[in-house]
Design brief:
The chain has 13 helices and 22 strands. Helix 12 runs antiparallel to helix 13. It is α+β, with helices and mostly antiparallel strands and about 450 residues long. The chain binds flavin-adenine dinucleotide. Flavin-adenine dinucleotide (FAD) binds next to strand 6 and helix 6.
């Protein structure tokens, strides 16, 4: 990436590090480098990862909105077996639950694999074991990992880190921006680090371009960057909590999620609160699509069903009538980033949830304003896709995308779903998501379906 940036005109200096940050109030005035030179710029971006060089120098505090305090212990291995071969350049990451923690198993190349163990810091302390002991026990005692590593040799580079999730209280100031892990970190269970770093980096690049060209207001750009990226990091942290709460060791998190729900004005039992956390907030204010924790909503539902050993639950299945509900929502601007240009669109905010009025969401807002039925919705999409002459697979994926967006809007409370017995039930939606695979033996357990009826379109 560094070489690529250089090939595009970036001036790269290496090896060199920033050892001094000069500032006047909230404004950075220069960076002192350890080769004795000084750098001055119009804008400064802190992409220094966990070091958070600029964040610390400016004194931006951090919040840790979770009680999860884990440690990670990992090593790299040669010649571990691949659980699933998916061809050159492809890999399949495994997450193996141990009850007291979990193991990541990530093939990095033809012969090299990263194998890590994540356990609560309290468990580690109580065990009285050294990191290498606790790691060896986990790898040797888990039958799946043991089998995959029977011929593997360690590179002997055992490392540990604490991976407390956090988010900085402010991500942008007068002429500075925090991006990537300097802005925040979410527990590695969702492997969100690179996604979050890339999203921050992209947003900073767009924001600086829009400010320098005078196309967007500088204050608004900072507000937008700060809010949307803090929300993204916070959502990953919250969603990581959700996954841990399915693990026996972390059952106290159900009570914590109840407290989070209460903060959002909802009085729920721990179990209801846990469900609420796992089903809400799927809509990203800037992006057209439904996702949480880097996964599509369909994938999240499928994963949840595997954790809970139930069929995936869809609010829209069993209902057929849909009404828009914007009561009490506040309007703000969201940003659309496309081809190097930033444009604004209307977004709606309520109870910590955001709805961008763009793309499929804008279409659903207009379709449900005076109420619609699933049959009418399906007919309208089919008329549009056939008018546009789309191939059947493309048409089917638009049907699926629309109904998954409808599901997200129902989960987030933007649309009220009900059942009218005089109308046919929902039909004609393609479900499924190819991202998540379980290593279950299909002979032992019937594979789960997505819960959405398959396409008839
Ligand atoms: C063991 C482990 C496994 C992980 N696995 C995954 C995974 O599977 N998937 C995933 O998405 N994420 C994973 N992550 C997280 C991911 O690596 C980070 O979230 C990501 O690298 C953050 O990117 P960044 O650019 O913000 O920071 P970094 O990648 O940490 O880069 C920061 C850079 O700043 C430089 N720097 C620091 N201080 C200074 C200074 N004073 N002057 C100049 N330069 C400085 C550093 O040398 C470094 O090059 C993992 C992390 C760990 C530790």
């Amino acid at each position: 990436m560094l070489d690529h940036a250089q090939s595009l005109g970036c001036q790269v200096r290496q090896p060199v590090s920033v050892h001094r940050v000069d500032r006047e109030g909230d404004r950075v005035t220069a960076l002192g480098l350890d080769d004795g030179s000084e750098l001055r710029a119009r804008q400064y971006v802190d992409a220094s990862g966990h070091a958070g060089v600029l964040r610390r120098a400016i004194g931006v505090e951090i919040d840790c909105p979770t009680s999860l305090q884990n440690i990670a212990i990992w090593d790299y291995w040669q010649n571990a077996e691949w659980a699933v071969s998916v061809g050159v350049g492809g890999t399949r990451v495994q997450v193996l639950s141990l009850g007291y923690g979990w193991i990541w198993f990530i093939p990095l190349g033809p012969t090299r694999t990263s194998v890590g163990l994540v356990v609560p810091a309290a468990y580690y302390k109580a065990s009285g074991k050294r990191p290498e002991e606790i790691y060896r026990d986990a790898v040797e005692n888990d039958p799946v990992t043991r089998r995959l590593m029977r011929n593997a040799t360690s590179e002997g580079r055992l490392s540990t880190t604490k991976d407390w999730s956090f988010v900085a209280r402010r991500l942008a100031g007068d002429n500075w921006w925090l991006a990537g892990e300097s802005a925040g970190f979410a527990d590695p269970i969702l492997a969100a680090g690179m996604t979050l770093a890339h999203l921050c980096a992209r947003d900073v690049a767009y924001a600086i371009l829009a400010e320098e060209s005078g196309e967007q207001d500088a204050d608004w750009l900072r507000e937008w960057y700060d809010e949307s990226n803090r929300t993204k990091i916070g959502r990953h942290i919250r969603f990581a909590d959700f996954w841990y709460s399915a693990n026996g060791y972390f059952s106290d998190l159900q009570v914590e999620t109840q407290a989070i729900a209460r903060d959002a004005g909802l009085d729920l039992t721990p179990a209801e609160a846990w469900r609420w956390l796992g089903t809400g907030g799927f809509i990203d204010g800037d992006r057209v699509g439904t996702e949480v924790g880097s996964f599509s909503l369909g994938a999240v539902k499928l994963m949840a069903s595997r954790f809970l050993d139930t069929d995936p639950h869809y609010e829209i299945v069993g209902n057929n009538t849909f009404y828009l509900d914007m009561d009490g929502a506040e309007e703000r601007w969201g940003a659309r980033l496309e081809n190097g240009k930033m444009s604004r669109h209307r977004t709606h905010h309520r109870d910590g949830k955001t709805l961008p009025e763009v793309g499929v969401y804008a279409a659903l807002v207009s379709a449900t304003r005076s109420g619609t039925t699933s049959a009418r919705l399906l007919a309208a999409i089919q008329a549009n896709t056939s008018r546009a002459g789309l191939a059947p697979e493309k048409a089917a994926s638009i049907v699926q995308e629309t109904f998954v967006a409808l599901e997200a809007m129902v989960c987030d409370g933007w649309i009220r779903a009900s059942f009218d017995a005089s109308l046919p039930p929902l039909a004609g939606v393609a479900g499924g998501d190819a991202i998540i695979h379980s290593n279950r033996d299909p002979r032992e357990k019937k594979e789960k379906t997505t819960g959405l009826p398959q396409a008839t379109a």
